[in-house]
Fold these 3 entries.
Entry 1:
Amino acid sequence: MEETNKNKNKYSIIIPTYNERLNIALIVYLIFKHLRDVDFEIIVVDDGSPDGTQEVVKQLQQLYGEDRILLRPRPKKLGLGTAYIHGLKHASGSFVVIMDADLSHHPKYLPSFIKKQLETGASIVTGTRYVRSGGVHGWNLMRKLTSRGANVLAQTLLWPGVSDLTGSFRLYKKSVLEDVISSCVSKGYVFQMEMIVRACRKGYHIEEVPITFVDRVFGSSKLGGSEIVEYLKGLLYLLITT
Amino acid sequence: MKHVVKILTLLVAITALWFGLLQTSVIPRSHTWLLPIYFIVSLGCYGLLMVGIGLMYFPTCPQEALLLQQDIKEAKEYLERKGIDVSE
Ligand SMILES: Nc1nc2c(ncn2[C@@H]2O[C@H](COP(=O)(O)OP(=O)(O)OP(=O)(O)O)[C@@H](O)[C@H]2O)c(=O)[nH]1
Ligand SMILES: [Mg+2]
């Protein structure tokens, strides 16, 4: 904690939500628990969740303060990529963390992201699951197989220089995120991959920290359908445009 | 340079090398003709091998799931006390 005590930076944590009323409360508690000596704000971008996510966020604002938890909702479900852009507009920190609300991204890793950035001066610190002391829990064989296959394919074709392309638990310098996000057009998993590949091509300094990923306990997944086809299309798109 | 151009350049270089081998016949021609097939087969093997190794050594973390359950319990207790709605 030495470094974080002297750390004068402000961090904006952007959390997109759709039907995460329970998860958002739990994750906010855990963020405050694990980032005691750090200046940060949490920006919740909720897309008009019908389950009352926004009511819970308002209750949390009463408890933790409206300057610490910002609710920046949008009227309807408009997708993840634009949710980040929307949240970014309201970020006042010099660094931005992007994480999911569903507790797959555990806030206990936030200090290691911050520490890594301070030590290396990196523009992006990305969480990786596929290293020792990282890991995944709760995936069946099929999910593991597609994940490994997708990763090998992307590594062989794109040479991206990071080991976990589709993870989305990342810390960015704010200016870098603004630069990279403006040139990204993909959706879903491909979006995360496009962000990191473009950042890599632009020559930004990227560092990795190990994280563990526990499949969501509450709520339901919002991605789905023809993910594999979308992924292959995205791969092709990145091959020709980056 | 777009990435696809890099990959195509690599492929062109390999093809040129192969033509070179065909011309000079350092190794018997019948072998040289088969080289592209060997190349594709070994590429496929490489892919399968990497996926296989990835699956075998897929890092898992069952203890993390237990820790998360504890964290959830702790968070729920605290938030409930503060009057925040954490019913499922
Ligand atoms: N604002 C907003 N948030 C979204 C939208 N779609 C998903 N999210 C949020 O984005 C995060 C990731 O979505 P998930 O459904 O967990 O996607 P995933 O993690 O790839 O899938 P799982 O592994 O099944 O959890 C969660 O916090 C969601 O609530 C959307 O359209 N708008
Ligand atoms: Mg998730």
Entry 2:
Amino acid sequence: MDSSMATPSIAADHRPAHLQLINVWKRFGPPERQTVAVRNVDLAIQPGEFVTLIGPSGCGKSTLFNMIAGLIAPDDDGSILLSNKVQQDYGLLGKVAFMPQRDLLFPWRTVIDNATLPLEIEGVSRKAARARAEALFPEFGLEGFETHYPHQLSGGMRQRVALMRTFLFERDLVLLDEPFGALDALTRSMMQRWLLDVWAKHRRTVLFITHDIDEAIFLGDKVVVMTARPGTIKCAERINLPRPRAASVTTTGEFIDIKRRLLAVVEEESLKTFGGATLA
Amino acid sequence: MVAGGVTWRDRLAVVIGLATLFIVWQAATMLFAVPDYILPRPLDIAWAIVERREQIWRALLFTLAETGAGFAIGALIGIGLAVCLVLIPPCEAVVMPLAVAINAVPSVAFVPLALIWFGLGMGSKIAMAVLAIAFIVLLNALSGLKKPEQGHIDLMRSFGAGRFGILWRLRLPAAMPSIVTGLRVGLGRSTIAVIVAEMLGAYDGIGQIVYQSTAQVDYLSVWAAVLTAMLGSLALYGCLVAIDRKLIWWR
Amino acid sequence: MKRDALLRSPLPMLVVLALAWWLVVPALKIEARYLPPLGAVIADARSVWPDLLAGFWRTLLETVIGFFIGAALGIAAGIGFAQWRWLERGVFPIFVALQSVPVIAFGAIVVIWFGNTLASKVVIALYLAFFPIAVNTLRGLQEADPQRMALMRSFGASSRQMFLKLSLPTALPTIMIGLKIGLSLALAGAIVGEWFGDTVGLGVMLLQALYFEQVPRLWVLILTCGGLGTLLYGGAGLIERRFIWWRAE
Ligand SMILES: Nc1ncnc2c1ncn2[C@@H]1O[C@H](COP(=O)(O)OP(=O)(O)O)[C@@H](O)[C@H]1O
Ligand SMILES: [Mg+2]
């Protein structure tokens, strides 16, 4: 039942995967009081693909991301492959551009110094780092704010600074953990379209967490649904909506069909979390 | 850090640390035959405390009583003043500059004046303790009472709460953590203020033992008195930490 | 704007206080033993002017030298504690305890150790300043947000970069609080240190004024000590506002 919705189109994709997860598990705590956060995850992402990951809160999405970023080690059951190479524990640190849920800007750094932080860490000279960042400012809508401090910016702008920081850390695989979760609906939809533009230009492989179905469908080449905790992949659906996508795409019949199908699956999982919470 | 559970490993680490300190101290003073007036041996100090226990115990109680009285009065003054300033904001323009000016003077500089004003008895020591604690508690209480955001205050007002309702149900609970921090810092300061005042003139107390023993070149007694005072102030500190946990259960 | 700042500063209040002192003492016939008339205090200040200046310099010097050495040692110790967990577990609680030792009581012993010189006062000031600075450095360094640390690690940061770019800037506001506490304790330490025997310094003059019950002199000295304190804290505040204006979130 769980895998009945896996579409054949995914199995048919035979290009070598950029990122591949094989039977990845993560358990927390001592054996007698164990929390299984992530269970038996198999996932493959092609180069240049935009994959959105959706699932009820607490299902293990961030944990999965932390493993892909190399921040925590997966349990020994399975493995993570980047460009077909098996990765050692923590071996992924510095290889993946990772943007956590909060913007995590440093309050003592100006906007531009926040953006160039990863370049500084790589050892790029201050001047070269600034030059590279300055080129991105118009595209990220931050022109004129180079020397502002984070507390002087709005939520949407802070998020764009965090995104710019992630993009300046030039890695082919980009992980975005609910980057627009805290924004209001209008700002959020503008940021979504803007992100697609940026992605179309830079063509990185993107894995994007969200809990918003519209966002998942609108952005993704593929939507992956996770089950309630212990989280595993419930199903995946390829989205063949034409690109570039305009805001109006969300009102087409095709979009609504996909949404209806995904909604049924996601609701089922959310209910499990909800029911579990009331029982506990 | 304070509230976190203390494991047996932490305790063991402290015991090992203390034991190392004492063994090194004892061994070094014996090995190099360090004279008492430079650095006495820990065992000799312990023996001196046992020998002079009656005198030291009386002095300790005396000092603790002065500190306790000053602490209580000073804390009440500090908190009371902060509450007044929050209830009647214009007063702040008058009280705060005065408080800041008094605080700019290191409190030890007031010791001679306190002795002249209040005499050699307990009064002058209590006054010094009050001075040492009132300002820090005032500052901490004031910043704590002002911590609630306008949103929370407006919510309370929409429920029909008046100034006192907001003070009692919102501001005071919000201020508790910083008030307790102020009390903790102030306790150390007032102990030191009391002992310093006793050293310049008193009828009894740890500071007076220190003064007389120094004059008689009896440094073993100085160490005995100081170590006892340290244990006393640690005990007070422990009480305060326990109160802290009771008062601020939501952290 | 300028006028506002002036109104909020303690300056006008001090003028009002001085006026009140000047008018109220004769009006209420307050005994000079408790509060001498302002005129008497000013006259006394003029009569000891050279001594006062010398004492001011001497005490300032003791405080500043003691403070800087204490700050350097305290910050180094705090970093050491943050670096080595076993050191923190075994020694840090003892540190917290030592902070409550009325070290001033050891003044006489310190004078035996270091002689009746500038050094002994510097040592007392240094010792007092050391502990709050060490404790606050450790607390500050432990404040770094784990999520920011994870972000830095995902960029491949080394532990050196982690320290310089994240832990230290996060800790600075807390360290600054420790420095300000340490500064006030260093000043107190210098003053009391002089009580154990010296010839120059504000502490010496305080003791002499007490023995001879010169109440106007006491007030002159209290005001001078206040001036010295204001100078030191004002300087620290300026540095803080200029360089460490951010707060932990
Ligand atoms: N370090 C940890 N220790 C113990 N449990 C954890 C830890 N990290 C996450 N978890 C648990 O794993 C589950 C998944 O968390 P998370 O990945 O943050 O969920 P999501 O991002 O999908 O909302 C949660 O139940 C959480 O309590
Ligand atoms: Mg999450």
Entry 3:
Amino acid sequence: MSAALLEVRGISKRFRGLQAVDNVSFAVPPGGIVALIGPNGAGKTTTFNLIAGAMVPDGGSIVLDGADITGGRPDQACRAGIGRTFQLVKPFGALSVLQNVMVGAFKATADRVAARRAAWEILERLGLAEKAENPAKTLTLPERKRLETARALATRPKILLLDEVMAGLRPTEIDQMVRAFADLSRETGLAILLTEHVMRAVMALSHHIVVLHHGQKICEGAPEQVARDPQVLECYLGHAQAAERPGA
Amino acid sequence: MRASRALGLSPRAAAALGLFLAVMLLLPFLVNAYIVSVLVVVLFAAYFGQSWNIMTGFAGQLSLGHALYVGLGAYTSAALFVHFGLTPWLGMIAGMAVAALAGSAIAALSFRFRVGGVYFALLTIAFAEFTRILFDHFGWVGATEGLFLPVANLAHDDPVRLRGSPVMFYYLLLVLSLAALVLSHSLLDRRVGYYWQAIREDEEAARALGIDVFRYKIAAMALSAAMTALGGTLLAFYDNNLYPDTVFAMGRSIEIIIAPIIGGLGTLFGPIVGAFLLTGLGETMTNLSTYFEISGLKQWFYGAALLAIVALQPSGLWPWLSRALGLWERRR
Ligand SMILES: Nc1ncnc2c1ncn2[C@@H]1O[C@H](COP(=O)(O)OP(=O)(O)OP(=O)(O)O)[C@@H](O)[C@H]1O
Ligand SMILES: [Mg+2]
């Protein structure tokens, strides 16, 4: 795994009494699509925050393309090649959709015309082109999630961190997004790390799955393999069964 | 035409701006000295508002102490003129440098320690007040006794030494305000303008897109402070006397921010529209209250008008006015 694009080595994060991420390690190869799954509160978003520099890990290290980026600022992580979306979306509300994406595109170029062109391309790819001139605050939630993705993509990352960007989409829309991401990864060699509760998307898109539970990695492997893992079944289905059986 | 295209205006808006400029250029020939003096007040308000708008309207960092930079620009250039006979144009540059340094230092101090929002605003007030008190005891610039510029004979205007009639200041300020308009527009159209607005809208998202938020905030503060100081120099040479308690007054800081807020925070023309409306309204009310011999009429109407505008057009007059006149300003 020394050829990994992103290597997460034993990172941990504690909030007061809660161990949100506990000695988690995994890797994303160049061009790879890896899913980070787990029940609510498993520590997925926290892991993203640690990788993207929004939080500093208590321990462990994060290596991107051979460079140690542990403890760097978010803007430095972005410039190192990490593009991230926020689970709780953060649009630049007063700016148009196009301008939102241009802010991202300005990372690669100071030229306004070039930034505009790059932003348009991304909007078209993600099916947001008709909304380009609308203020971002007028978008629906699923559209805002797509805008998050578009903005992150515009920074031309080496790896894209997608935090539940397909939540709230209809099945046909999910299939569209899955296709868009798969195409993107294949055409540009972009690596993707995603968390998603929509299993349909996870299974269709990812080459490799990492499962978190209570901040710990409980299992990882190919999608079919993970889907059969008894520990995974327990932490997912166990919940479902527990919900069905009062008193359990 | 090139100028209108450079400003990104529709033909109709360009025509309106052209007409406005023509009127402004001719106005001093058509009105009496009193009106000219009121227009000078309008243009000062517009220009200070434009300068403040960069910091707060574009980059979203609320400064409530911009009188500090007015004062630094005014005192630096005036003191250098009085003590060393330095031409105000060089003194102006010195004042801008002092203000930019002070602004950067305040911003750096605040943002390094993650002081933001209202706490940052409080800090800007504190620094302005602190400097006012400092100048009260600063003998070299006259302390509380004031600093006076020699009033020359006004036979003809001397723009090199900034000695002259209100009409000269009127034209200087008109050019300055136009320059600020063009600069603001060009900044909004560049990466730095996009980055400032991104920071204003959501700092965390801005950071995630690779923006060094700290650096861009300091740049906004430095530029805004320097522009304000430039106006401060003109104010010093227009007023000819400087007292810490009026130059650095808290009331001045408040006055600076009202026009852009009423006109439209973060818009290009908001500070100018706001300055015309507020100064015009204020003067009218003063005259009415003198005429009807009702004291306090001015404050009442002024307050009521502000309330009405804020309640009816919370995003300011300009966005509404430009739509009503069909001069849509593309929001950036
Ligand atoms: N800033 C914070 N301060 C304190 N506790 C936090 C913070 N962020 C997350 N937590 C806690 O850490 C745990 C992990 O949260 P996290 O957001 O990483 O989970 P998640 O796997 O993304 O869940 P979900 O699927 O609901 O998004 C949760 O118990 C959460 O309440
Ligand atoms: Mg989450």
